[in-house]
Structure formats: structure tokens, C-alpha cells
Amino acid sequence: MTPHEHPVQSCRDRHGVAVAYRLWRPADPWGLVVVAHGASERGGPDERFAQARAGAGLATAALDQRGHGRTAEASGGPGIVGPGGGPALLEDLALVRAEAEAALGGERPTFIFGHSLGSVIGLAALVAESRTLAGAVLCGFPVDLHGVAALGEALAEQAGQAGRAQPASDLFAPYAEAVPDRRTPYDWLSRDPAEVDRYLADPFCGDQHPLTWGYLLKVFALAAPAAKRLDTIACPVLVIAGDQDPAGAMGDYPRTLAEALVAAGVPCDLRLYPGARHELLNETNRDEVTADILAWLGRWR
């Protein structure tokens, strides 16, 4: 744990996996935000945005998802989903939400914030439980909604490698190549070199904590059926991304998601930030992004 990082708690799911999470508790919060992080990272570096949410009266629960952070040891190692398979990713998100709601006590609105791979998991969670949520923010959506089933089939062709970890820089190489004059393989994350260096130095991020083909296959197996059931989502959604994010096809994938949500009758707002890359909360315009998110969440207070 870094000097400014929030302490880690854990809860054990029904498969016996100890799920690590952090809970930020301001005095008398009016709402709760449950965070699902992206691939090859973890929930700990959410400190800055969690403190901003706390200042706005929102508690935050951020888990280390299976195969990531401090949960990876219990689920079988980096990039391994472990017992329960893909559905357990949703179960653990719901479990941490329940733990946080119980710790806070009382009744208050709960939101999901999903980033990147976490936004794909978050979309599946919305289809499963949106009637009990006040809203959701999906940030950096990294897949073509209409092609998610085909993507799953393509990943299935990698079945022979399903249990083998692959360095994140290999998986993300096409994103890196989209950034001219790049300094590192991860400049596509942010225009702020200090934030890129922070990511590279984190032992739970990037190549130090790689994914597996099997992990991606399980996540997109959740997303494919969810993409066909958007009309079951019963809460408002904010979709945000940078228009220079190669993971989101320079804004095309988030735009497609927002259009599909609106067509399904879901109240949805879309915000694309000019010049911004993948990690909006760690971008050079992060103060603008943070203010926009807090203002949107505050609409449902």
C-alpha cells in the first residue's frame, strides 16, 4: 500500500475467494458509488477521485476484481478468474456493494462506476440489477457493442492459450501504436506523463499483472447477452470517454453504446472529451471530468 492509499478490507464470496476492496466513508454520505476497475489495474489508485466523491458526500467501494490486485492470489493468480467463472465477477461486484451498504447503514442511492473492462462488467451488472440502482457511469467503453458476440468467438479461437497470461503491452499494442511520438507503451492511457509513470511503477498494473485470453473470453461471454437486453436497464446511464482513446476507437465505441441505450429507451447522456485518451480520471483535464461526473451523480440525489 502506498503512503496515501486507503486501507484494504476483504470479504469472502460463496466460492471461497477472498475479495479485496476499499471503502471510503465520509460523514453522513447521501449515496454510494461502487467501482469496477479496468484490465491489468486495481481499485487502490482510485484515491484521488474517491476523495473528490467524499467531498461531494458520496461513499466509495472499490474492489480488486478477480485476477487483479490483492484478490488475484485468492482467485488463482494474475489474469485468472477462478472458481465460479465469469458470473462470479458480477457476484463479487454485488457482494462488495452489499458489504458497503451494510457498513454504511440506512438507505441511500447506489451507483456503479465502471471503467474500461470494468465498464463491460458494469453493463452486464446493469442488466442484472439496475432496478436496485440509482444510476451508472460507464467510462472508456472498449468494445463495439454490435460486435461483442463476434469478438467473443474470436477470443474463443485462442482456447489453446486460455490459461496463459499474456503481457498487457502485447494485448494493448494496437492502442500504443495509435499514439504518435510515444514515450512508453502506455502513453495511450493519458497525456500526463506522471500518471503513465505511476501506472508503470505499480506492481499490480500493466505487464507486471497481465491478463489471460480466458479472462477476456469470460468477460465478453457476460457482455454478449447483456448487449441484447439493454431495454431491461431501468436506471439512467452516463457514458464518458476521450475522443482520442484508441481502446474506444477514438470515441466510436462509447458513442455506439450511448446510441444503443437511447434506442432501447434508457435515459443516457454521452460526453466525449476532445483530445483525451483512455484514463479520464488521470488525464490532464481530470478536474473537468471529475466535476462533470459529480454534477451528473448529484442529479439523482
Structural features, described:
The protein is α/β, with parallel strands linked by helices and about 300 residues long. It has a single domain, classed as Alpha/Beta hydrolase fold, catalytic domain (Rossmann fold), CATH 3.40.50. It contains eleven helices and ten strands. It has helices at about 45-55, 70-75, 85-105, 115-130, 150-155, 170, 175, 195-200, 215-225, 250-265, 285-300; strands at about 10, 20-25, 30-35, 60-65, 110-115, 135-140, 165, 210, 235-240, 270-275. The strands form two sheets. Strands 1-2-4-3-5-6-9-10 form an eight-stranded mixed beta sheet, sandwiched between helices. A two-stranded antiparallel sheet has the order 7-8. Helix 3 crosses helix 9 and helix 4 (about 115-130) crosses helix 9. The longest helix has 20 residues, at about 85-105. The mean pLDDT is about 90. InterPro entries: AB_hydrolase_fold (IPR029058), Hydrolase_4 (IPR022742), MAG_DAG_Lipase (IPR051044). This is Alpha/beta fold hydrolase. One of its GO terms (molecular function) is hydrolase activity. Keywords: Hydrolase.
Largest sheet: 8 strands, mixed
Shape: globular
Structural class category: alpha/beta
Q: Which range does the strand content fall in?
A: 15-25%
- Indicate the CATH class: Alpha Beta
Q: What is the architecture at the second tier of CATH?
A: 3-Layer(aba) Sandwich
Question: What would a concise description of this structure say?
Answer:
With 301 residues, the chain is an alpha/beta fold. Helices cover 38% and strands 17% of the residues.
